[in-house]
Specification:
Layout (H helix, E strand, L loop, with lengths): L2 H17 L6 E3 L1 H5 L1 H5 L6 E3 L7 H4 L10 E3 L12 E4 L4 E5 L1 E2 L10 H5 L3 E2 L2 H13 L4 E5 L14 H9 L6 E4 L9 H9 L6 E7 L3 H7 L5 H14 L4 E8 L6 H13 L4 E6 L17 H26 L3 E11 L2 E6 L4 E5 L8 E9 L6 E3 L1
Helix pairs in contact: 6-7, 8-10
């Protein structure tokens, strides 16, 4: 959670209340877990539920529940040990399978452990059955999500690679994507398994956060830039066409001009496909607030813009490297004007004229040039 995200949540709550003044409003999630009183004070909020209490939301919708405005029901998330895998979806093609929750890392800039609790997951058997349910419901692509996905099985004696193998063994026409794995948890075994897999796509999302060891130490990250570069090189050696997304946080306390330039040069040297750039904002109850050097907001924005420009250059280069190649595209249901879109196995966005019969089907195409607004390659 960031201050910007908090602000957007408050705006959404106020907007919904204006649009539906007589509706019962319940707010839950990370923001509710961290700042319940702040939310409860917003006009229109009837009930604030903590991150774990949201799973019992139906109990609070009953007629027997007291109608107390701004009521707060929030337990100690750090005591929660239970976890059940769950599925959500935004269309009938791509489903999101939550395989893990919580985090034990306590990075100095982050409040996730306070909002989501300790790392926990279900068993492989439970998670595979939930995936099967999604496939029976029509899922053609399933994204494996979590707060610290690579820690799957930490408290059950199982492993993330074990989960990947079990999912890969499901006899179904389905793709899997791994949403994000910490570089210290992305083993060479996992990378090789993805390369050999029938169903897991050559698509990696890896948080870097900073391109210098000095800042990584201030952040309390559990790897070095040398390890990160090694993981990137291994992926590209085994899967040269793999899509690699990289998370970066810019403007954290302690990031001097010199350290930012070092970080930028390191990031620039990497063979990635896209950057996800997050501008640092101060969060209460984090250790980073103890670091004296503070980057001015204007400078944070400037650094963010530079990294966004670098990301655009890298994405353009990656897409250019795919032009002319044959690829399997899974077409999605959403219609954009007269066009439809889908993604290749290695996450290249492709477009073609809309054809209802192709929705939720995979088609082998040749990748052409950019479309007019450079948001996708044309299918030939």
């Amino acid at each position: 959670m960031t201050d910007k995200a908090d602000h957007k949540c408050r705006q959404a709550i106020s907007r919904l209340h204006r649009q539906h003044p007589n509706a019962k409003m319940i707010v839950t999630g990370c923001y509710a877990q961290l700042k319940p009183k702040e939310i409860a004070s917003i006009e229109g909020v009837d009930l604030v539920l903590g991150a774990n209490e949201k799973f019992s939301i139906q109990n609070y919708l009953s007629n027997n529940h007291p109608e107390t405005k701004g009521e707060i029901v929030r337990g100690d998330i750090l005591k929660v040990k239970d976890f059940k895998p769950s599925v959500s979806f935004d269309d009938r093609t791509r489903y999101f399978l939550k395989v893990q929750d919580g985090c034990d890392y306590y990075c100095t800039y982050c409040t996730i452990p306070l909002a989501r609790g300790h790392s926990r997951s279900g068993t492989i058997a439970e998670t595979v059955e939930t995936a099967r349910e999604a496939i029976r419901a029509g899922a053609r692509e399933i994204v494996l999500t979590g707060v610290n996905t690579g820690e799957f099985g930490k408290r059950t004696g199982e492993t993330f690679i074990g989960l990947l193998k079990a999912l890969d063994n499901i006899d179904a026409d389905v793709r899997y994507r791994i949403s994000s794995v910490e570089p210290n948890l992305l083993t060479d075994e996992i990378i090789q398994f993805v390369a050999d897999s029938r169903h897991i796509m050559p698509h990696f999302h890896i948080p870097l956060q900073s391109g210098t060891n000095e800042i990584l130490r201030l952040m309390k990250r559990r790897y070095t830039v040398e390890l990160f570069a090694e993981k990137m090189a291994t992926i590209k050696r085994i899967l040269p066409d793999a899509f690699i997304g990289v998370d970066v946080i810019v403007g954290v306390r302690g990031e001097t001009d010199e350290l930012f330039e070092q970080s930028f040069e390191f990031i620039q040297s990497l063979d990635f496909s896209q950057l996800h750039v997050f501008t640092y904002s101060e969060r209460a109850n984090t250790k980073m607030l103890e670091i004296e050097h503070n980057v001015p907001v204007k400078e944070r924005k400037r650094r963010s813009e530079r990294l966004h420009e670098l990301s655009e250059e890298k994405t353009a280069a990656f897409y250019a490297s795919q032009t002319g190649k044959k690829a399997s595209v899974l077409w999605e249901a959403k219609k954009n004007g007269e066009m439809m879109h889908g993604f290749t196995e290695n996450y290249v966005r492709v477009e073609r004229p809309y054809d209802k019969k192709r929705v939720n089907t995979a088609e082998t195409v040749t990748l052409g040039d950019w479309n007019e607004d450079k948001t996708a390659l044309k299918a030939i």
